[in-house]
From TrEMBL:
Cellular component GO terms held in the UniProt record: anaerobic ribonucleoside-triphosphate reductase complex
Gene symbol of the encoding locus: nrdD
Protein name per UniProt: Anaerobic ribonucleoside-triphosphate reductase
EC number: 1.17.4.2
Organismal lineage: Bacteria, Bacillati, Bacillota, Bacilli, Bacillales
List of residues that carry Glycine radical: G686
């Protein structure tokens, strides 16, 4: 048992805050230094801690520097002076690293040196092109300035240490930008809008409507930093497809026999619809936003039942199945989300069941669409809508007239909690875990409140497409308060989390998934997060939500920082990545049905952002197996993605799963690693990415490697 201090002595942090003295932090730091030197001596550790406590000043409050001085002196006088040197070197390296993260020269030099942690942070940004390099340079300046001068000191310090992650520091808070949104496409198309020097009128055809949508998406994506979504695009565009049909009807009256006029109008309209949706897919994939990337855009569809909506749904899927370019590669964007609803398309007797079959084929061959299960989502979120971007969901919300509104709403940002670190720092003590958790949540709150205050400082003229021309719904004039689009719980602001698997592993070991007590602990973590969110929502009037962070690079960053500080811990830091969200450990052999049963309880407490995935072998020959999983999921989970091997080699015609290597991926048949003659598609966050063309951070390669190893066992 480690010695406890008898007094409630306070510690003065570097940012000026006063917190209670915590001997466990000293213990963890000394123990990490011992591990790095190969010293395993529990009696030594106990004796050193006793000497440190006795040597501390008896003042009511001591500074961090005073504590460090005492620790270093006691270690130097102890049996193992190498431990003292390791501790001093670690403190020096940590202080230097922290200083370098806020140093502008260091940040820019990393870009010039093509540091992989910087240039490969986003799998859908090509860091070799000038506009992306310009964005990365501007981001380095913004991040450095925000950490050094803008964020509250204790928030910046917590981010630098890895206790929390203040997302998108390369854009916010330097700019008062919002995160992700559901664009009010229906309102913008119906009422017109302005982009640049053009006042755009309501479209008269579906071709013009999709062209306008592409321009809206590009402009919205350049005015915020997160993903954007178009909800129910089949129903929105059906209005404009009908205008095409009426024109073709008029044409048929002049040139076509009476009995063939309807057939003529429908065939012409069907071609118009297909051409429009194909054009939209190509335009989105060839767009570059001002931040040097293809817009992260999601299209939701599947609920429309009239002829026009059905044709639009089928065109979206057929266009995706057809591929893009001369090699018919899988389109990375837009993300497709197909809505499934009992009575509409779930069962064979439903009117749109045939479109569900097409969606199954498309998902098996092109990975998208993901599916949204109508009844399960309404149960979780209060009504139905697609996510903003890849997984951020809005709750049901009514305006002053009592009307339910989703289009035009948004998310204001995310701060993610490093849950595994809390478990590590607790040393396996549950009571201590919750003490640290409570302390960290105060920092998360301060970070989110700062984020909220900053985004409220925006002016309509800062982002006209969002505030003045309808993307956020209500249209404001210059100088009006943007907060009316955020407050009264209209927007969400999110508490993110990562690593439930690793947190439970610290207490129950790496095989805990079948242990009810261990699972209850992970659910309790989410319940606590939701409790904080609900309390803050009641206190401030904004919808604080709990968000299962899509941690493309954060799985690596948190793990890397914790591994450097605490060494290799079995099944926690030794994997070189943290398990994302509430997902079942990707290294384990598990069927899709078992995975869904395990995960289905979690979104109740993190309905502000979530997604489930199931892993499969090649499915193109067995769509009934995929449908069996979709049907099983319908009443269990709301949002489900398909992960299946769809890689293609154009040198040997191989189709299946490329082999992961330390450098990337290669064809298992001919060894091809040329990105110009291969199409490799993997999940990166909730989106797809081509890791041969856009390298991912190391942790994501490792996670995908583990997934590949167990693909065959995932659909037993």
């Amino acid at each position: 048992m480690y010695v406890e201090k008898e007094t409630e002595q306070l510690v003065i942090k570097r940012d000026g805050r006063k917190v209670g003295f915590d001997l466990i932090k000293i213990r963890n730091a000394v123990q990490a230094s011992m591990v790095s030197c190969g010293v395993d001596d529990a009696a030594y550790l106990e004796a050193v801690l006793v000497d440190i406590v006795k040597s501390l000043p008896n003042d009511a409050a001591v500074t961090i520097d005073e504590i460090q001085h005492v620790v270093e002196n006691q270690l130097m006088k102890s049996t193992y002076p190498d431990v003292a040197r390791a501790y001093i070197e670690y403190r020096h390296d940590r202080d230097s690293q922290r200083a370098s993260m806020t140093d502008l020269t260091t940040s820019v030099q990393k870009l010039l040196d093509r540091d992989k942690s910087v240039v490969n942070e986003n799998a859908n940004k090509d860091a070799t092109v000038f506009n992306t390099q310009r964005d990365l340079t501007a981001g380095a300046v913004a991040k450095s300035y925000a950490l050094k001068y803008m964020l509250p000191k204790h928030v910046a310090n917590a981010h630098l240490k890895g206790d929390i992650h203040f997302h998108d520091l390369d854009y916010s808070p330097y700019h008062a930008m919002t995160n992700c949104c559901l664009i009010d496409i229906a309102g913008m198309l119906a009422n017109g809008f302005t982009i640049g020097n053009a006042n755009v009128e309501s479209p008269k055809s579906i071709q013009t409507a999709t062209a306008q949508i592409a321009q809206i998406i590009a402009n919205v994506a350049s005015s915020q930093y997160g993903g954007c979504s178009v909800d129910r695009i089949d129903e929105v565009l059906a209005v404009y497809a009908k205008r095409n049909y009426l024109k073709h009807e008029e044409e048929a009256e002049k040139w076509v026999l009476m009995e063939r006029r309807e057939e003529f109008a429908r065939e012409r309209t069907r071609k118009d619809i297909y051409d429009a949706m194909q054009s939209l897919e190509y335009e989105i994939n060839t767009l570059y936003t001002s931040n040097g990337q293809t817009p992260f855009v999601t299209l939701g569809f599947g609920l429309g039942e009239d002829w026009f909506a059905r044709e639009i749904q089928m065109a979206i899927l057929k266009v995706r199945l057809g591929g893009i370019g001369k090699d018919k590669q899988t389109a990375i964007f837009p993300k497709l989300v197909f809505s499934i609803k009992r009575g509409t398309n779930l069962d064979a007797a439903d009117p749109n069941y045939d479109i569900k079959q097409l969606a199954l084929e498309c998902s098996a061959k092109r990975m998208y669409p993901d599916v949204l299960n109508y009844d399960s989502l309404v149960r979780l979120a209060g009504d139905f809508k697609v996510p903003m971007g890849c997984r951020s969901f809005l709750p049901a919300w009514q305006d002053a007239d009592g009307m339910f509104v989703n289009a035009g709403r948004n998310n204001l940002g995310v701060v993610t909690l490093n849950v595994p670190r809390i478990a590590i720092q607790s040393g396996g003590d549950k009571e201590r875990f919750w003490e640290i958790f409570t302390e960290r949540m105060q920092t998360v709150k301060d970070a989110l409140l700062f984020r909220l205050e900053r985004v409220r400082e925006a002016k309509p003229e800062n982002a006209p497409i969002l505030y003045k021309y309808g993307a956020f719904g209500k249209r404001l004039d210059d100088g009006q308060d943007v907060d009316q689009l955020f407050n009264k719980e209209r927007s969400t602001i999110s508490i993110g989390y990562i690593g439930l698997y690793e947190a439970a592993t610290m207490f129950y070991g790496g095989e805990w998934e079948t242990n009810p007590e261990a699972k209850a602990f992970t659910l309790e973590i989410l319940k606590e997060l939701k409790g904080y969110a609900d309390d803050w929502k009641a206190e401030y009037g904004y919808w604080f939500s709990v968000y299962s962070t899509p941690s493309e690079s954060l799985t690596d960053r948190f793990n890397r920082l914790d591994r450097a500080k605490y060494g290799d811990i079995k099944d926690i830091t030794d994997k070189e990545y943290y398990q994302n969200s509430f997902h079942y450990d990707v290294r384990k052999k598990v069927t899709p049905f078992e995975k869904l049963d395990f995960e289905m309880e979690y979104p109740e407490y993190c309905s502000g952002g979530f997604i489930h995935y199931c892993e499969y072998p090649k499915l193109t020959h067995n769509l009934k197996a995929l449908e069996a999983v979709w049907d099983y999921a319908y009443d269990r989970v709301a949002y489900l993605g398909t992960n299946t091997p769809i890689d293609r080699c154009y040198e040997c015609d191989f189709e299946g799963e490329f082999a992961p290597t330390a450098e990337g991926f290669k064809c298992p048949e001919c060894g091809n690693t040329n990105p110009e003659t291969a199409d490799v598609v993997k999940r990166t966050c909730g989106y797809l990415g081509n890791p041969m063309k856009r390298p991912m951070v190391h942790g994501r390669h490792e996670e995908i490697t583990q997934r590949v190893k167990h693909l065959e066992s995932s659909n037993e």
